[in-house]
Design goal:
- The complex is a heterodimer of chains A (242) and B (223).
- Helix content of chain A is 72%, strand content 0%.
- Chain A is mainly alpha-helical and 242 residues long.
- Chain B starts with a helix and ends with a helix.
- In chain B, 48% of the residues are buried.
- Classes of the chains: A mainly alpha (242), B mainly alpha (223).
């Protein structure tokens, strides 16, 4: 059984259970925030999405580095999946952050929140990953260039975060961050369960995508063997070796 | 080093003889200053606004150079010849980054006086040493990241598009540091001393990106 399918069922069940538990905790267990009220609960979605997506970008860089070192295409596929999955998660994260900003501040976007700003810059950078990838025709070169890009941008994520934080004027108090250490017990539990749920969701979706890609490669290989090269139409935009 | 200086010499000679890149960059910079005058409807700029206008203009001009940096190599077989030669491949990075740095310096020789003339920021003469120091570090950032992005972009189909959209986010920390560093220097009554924080940020960012580029550049040149 392929590596990606091996624990998929167990992981899916664990993800479903954790995400459901997280939602139950968010709506029925976590206390209301004294200042912001019910609106604060979006923190349990926004921050886990942000953390998981940023870790996902760095993982994409690590997988890219592994591809450059070993030359095995499976690492490049993992890098591709990690990055575009993180892009989806981070778009969700920034929309949640924007909703939170609107509810807390009355503005859909605030420049005074350095975390949100550096997050936007990272999203804009990784939006260029797929255009870059699919504008290179040679598959091996595409994989190599994408891996180099992934490594540089994975290193860029923490640096960018630090520099933007340095540039923020602390005129406005930073309301969008509840530091992990300051959370009271029930909120802390809910937050960590949410974080675990989103992280498991990321891992499960990545496994599904890798499994689907492998299955497609295997099917095409079999068709090629049985029916000849002409029976297999070339794929369009794809990051996997056909 | 000899390889790098040979390639650098070749690039500078080509530029001197054809005068393609640097005059276009300088022209773009001057025109952009005029556009800013009309866009902002102001005769003089000072402080952070002046710093921002200068930084953004230098950035756009740098993007012009970045788009053209490896094109000759790609179209006239320079890459193939270089790969066949028994030399260290990182020499191409050093040479091209050096060329881009020199282009940026040449651009600033024209753009800074134009900036002083057209948009008249206060204390530019008084703060000039500090301004030049910050621009020196900023040019290193443009050179390193610009070369890296240009090397990626030259093998793609959408060459002119990919370069800027990857380069701009990667340059953003350097731009933040440059603009914020220049802001107090171009304000009224500026002391003329460079802000240490932003100098340190720029220097560190240059160093990190240089190390990353040196480590990864070979992979971009393989066949």
């Amino acid at each position: 059984m392929s590596t990606h399918v091996r624990h998929l069922r167990g992981l899916t069940i664990a993800t479903a259970v954790t995400v459901t538990a997280a939602l139950i905790l968010v709506f029925f267990y976590a206390p209301l925030d004294a200042e912001q009220g019910f609106v604060q609960k979006i923190f349990y979605i926004h921050v886990p999405l942000a953390i998981v997506s940023l870790v996902g970008y760095c993982l994409g860089g690590v997988f890219g580095l592994m591809y450059l070192r070993t030359g095995k295409r499976v690492w490049d596929m993992r890098s591709y999946c990690a990055i575009h999955m993180s892009l989806i998660f981070s778009v969700g994260g920034i929309i949640a952050g924007s909703i939170w900003a609107k509810a807390s501040w009355g503005h859909w976007w605030v420049w005074s929140e350095p975390t949100l700003v550096s997050y936007l810059i990272v999203i804009l950078l990784f939006c260029t990953y797929q255009p870059l990838r699919f504008s290179i025709e040679d598959p091996e070169r595409q994989a190599r260039y994408a891996a180099v890009f992934a490594v540089v941008c994975g290193a860029f994520v923490p640096i960018n975060f630090i520099v933007v934080r340095l540039s923020a004027e602390y005129v406005h108090p930073r309301v969008l961050n509840l530091e992990g250490g300051n959370l009271p017990g029930p909120m802390k539990l809910t937050f960590y369960v949410s974080l675990l749920g989103i992280a498991l969701l990321f891992a499960t979706l990545m496994k599904y995508e890798m499994a689907a890609k492998e299955m497609r490669i295997e099917t095409r290989r079999l068709r090629r063997t049985l029916l000849g090269d002409d029976a297999v139409r070339p794929l369009g935009r794809t990051a996997s070796p056909s | 080093m000899r390889t790098a200086s040979a390639i650098l010499r070749k690039d500078l000679l080509v530029e001197l003889r054809t005068l393609e890149t640097v005059p276009a960059m300088a022209l773009l910079a001057v025109i952009t200053f005029v556009i800013f005058h009309f866009g902002l409807n102001m005769d003089t700029l000072h402080g952070q606004l002046a710093a921002g206008v200068l930084t953004v203009t230098l950035l756009f001009a740098a993007m012009l150079a970045v788009n053209r940096l490896f094109v000759a190599e790609r179209e006239q077989g320079g890459f193939d010849a270089f790969l066949l030669a028994p030399v260290d491949r990182t020499a191409m990075l050093y040479a091209k980054a050096g060329a881009l740095f020199i282009f940026m310096v040449a651009l600033e020789v024209i753009a800074l006086p134009a900036f002083a003339l057209l948009l008249d920021p206060p204390c530019l003469g008084h703060s000039l040493p500090a301004v030049l120091l910050i621009l020196f570090l900023a040019d290193i950032a443009f050179a390193v990241i610009g070369t890296f992005v240009s090397a990626i972009a030259v093998h793609t189909r959408a060459r002119d598009l990919i370069g800027p959209i990857i380069g701009l986010p990667l340059l953003l920390p350097a731009l933040i540091a440059t603009a914020r560093g220049l802001g107090p220097l171009l304000a009224n009554g500026s002391s003329g001393s460079p802000p240490a924080k932003w100098l340190a940020v720029l220097a560190l960012y240059d160093l990190i990106n240089a190390l990353l580029a040196i480590g990864l550049f070979d992979f971009l040149l393989e066949e």
